[in-house]
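Retro notes
What went well: the complex prediction finally ran end to end.
Inputs used:
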Amino acid sequence: MKTRITELFGIEMPVIAGGMVWCSGWRLAAAVSRAGGLGLIGAGSMTAEVLREHIVKCRQAVGELPFGVNMPLMKPDAAILMEVVAQERVPVVFTSAGSPKKWTSWLHERGIKVAHVVASSIFARKCEDAGVDAVVAEGFEAGGHNGREETTTLCLIPAVRRATSLPLIAAGGVATGDAMLAVMALGAEGVQMGTRFALTAESSASEAFKRRCLELNEGDTRLLLRKLSPTRLVRGGFYDAIEQAENRGATGDELLQIIGTGASRRGIFEGDVEQGELEIGQAASLLKGRDIESVEEVMRQLRQEFDCALQKIKNFR
Amino acid sequence: MKTRITELFGIEMPVIAGGMVWCSGWRLAAAVSRAGGLGLIGAGSMTAEVLREHIVKCRQAVGELPFGVNMPLMKPDAAILMEVVAQERVPVVFTSAGSPKKWTSWLHERGIKVAHVVASSIFARKCEDAGVDAVVAEGFEAGGHNGREETTTLCLIPAVRRATSLPLIAAGGVATGDAMLAVMALGAEGVQMGTRFALTAESSASEAFKRRCLELNEGDTRLLLRKLSPTRLVRGGFYDAIEQAENRGATGDELLQIIGTGASRRGIFEGDVEQGELEIGQAASLLKGRDIESVEEVMRQLRQEFDCALQKIKNFR
């Protein structure tokens, strides 16, 4: 399979594993890159020291294969983490939650390829102005932090496709090969998948988190926290406390009190599925009843599902 | 083009025009059926007398071609309207907002084909049990009344595809031929489009409503009224009043007070785009800058876009 995304990153399948907090350590990133995709280490939940360790171990595991780091730009220590990325000669950085202008030139000067994550065509145009190498358009279906416009992937991808000529990666709601084909019909040239990879054996999330997410029904994740930063959460005790507060009209400050500190670490990494914060995409319910699979198995299924859906659609006309 | 949906209804293109309040009179329904799709009259905003008039005029315009009526089952006078549908020998009824068990046998006994609109795979299975001829799965992107699960079309279609073997029509976020191809890659065999047809010349909505909807940006429609019945509305004075009340924690009763009576008639039909209730799908922003087009022109573009997207995707592997 060949698109501008496989060529840009030098990968076999246009599949990127999102760099997710508490899930995307070196094991997951390396497994995805070794299986023909692009694995990302999630710097969002790492200190500089931990990030360096994950980069070194990832490189040991993948050899000459490409891999990357996802960097949320609103992170207070983003500048320190960026130094680590440059020192360790990481080949690719995906930036998010900030302006694409801030780091793109700096990274390019150091020979690092840059993709930026957006949730609207206005920000996609800013990416083009900033000179990024690719844009990730992430729809309402995505887990965790989400765009204010609430535009779904089905409506977002065509909008971004028209707004920019950049290589385009679709994210949000894409957990199968069928969905991969669907977003490529809309103009995407690759996909970034979070949910599917967060629930693999190689993800560093707790087993309790993975098992909980693999039994979700439709409607079991919802977008909340619109008064702060819109976030897709899984139903449970933490979710209920926020929803009840929002229903009675709680302010942003009151919501911050309820969230407290360390909630996503407690939920995702430590496996407190009742009181911790659980972030996963809407597509999780499509994985219901599956086992915790290996990355290799997931990549094999993606290829097969994509080919099968493509065969079917070729007969339509 | 041939799918189980074209065969079921005896149409050329698997495209159904949603039966929308204040938009879907006989002119719109007849134009869609004459252009090779299936036009639906929207009974939701009609009295028995008005519905009969629209059915008679639609039949005069289409001759032997199929057409249908959309019937929201929660309408207090649904039983009276169903009698009109049967007396006038309408060939197809799409039911929504209620149980598919209630009317399916009754309609079948009168030789009428039945499709039912759902927003979850649980309700899709109920459709199969009730013996409907086809199921419409409508995602979060859709305008107006919406499912409680907030499942987007990208996640809903595969879920419903697995849950039932019924002929499957995708709705919500589908306004172009590319999106038609995308949802068919997910397992749909046809599409129901509301937004695109609501804004055609033949739609009975006011010109002011159509012009307002053709200038929307991403994020200009949102789902509100979760404490009553979740509804996708267009930003404006009416929307602002509801959003502000919800942000301060207003109850369902307080929201009903703000909504008042006749709001959608005022907004959509009479064209009070500031104080009236405006309902349109999220895909409206993809139509920004277009003119008010004829149904024939829309159907021509859909064919062309579909073919073009299919050609592109055939080259992926």
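What we learned: Chain B has a mean pLDDT of 97.
What to try next: split runs per interface for comparison.
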